[in-house]
Amino acid sequence: MAIQVPTELLDGCVLGVLTRQDFYGYALTQEVRQRLPISESTLYPVLRRLKKNGWLTTYDEPFRGRNRRYYRLTRTGQAQLTVIRAEWGDFSQAVTTLLEGDQQDD
Question: CATH classification of 7-92, choosing from 1.10.10.10, 3.90.79.10, 3.90.180.10, 3.30.479.20?
């Protein structure tokens, strides 16, 4: 089942994966899909937008007579990931507090 992941969180997930290594499109999609149930077609528009924002750069490598397009995190992308991580931490903590309810009376 595919779920709707907020845009900024999906951006952060892609940028986070790319901190480990460069990935070509299909492999990157599979890497994200191991953790989030998103459709395969979801990630390519995200990658185009992240590249347009200057957060990713691309290069092509030959593979079995074809080219694979690899995505690499830029310094600007790393800075954006830092912002997203901080925002996620605040958001996650607030949601956890709300989900747990008033634990002080227990």
Answer: 1.10.10.10
Q: How many CA atoms lie within 13 Å of 39's alpha carbon, on the beta-carbon side?
A: 6
**Exposed (0-12), middle (13-18) or buried (19+): which is 58, by Cβ within 10 Å?**
middle
Amino acid at 24: Y
Query: What tens digit of pLDDT does each residue of 9-57 get?
Result: 899 999 999 999 999 999 999 999 999 988 878 899 999 999 999 999 9
Predicted TM-score (pTM) of this structure? 0.84
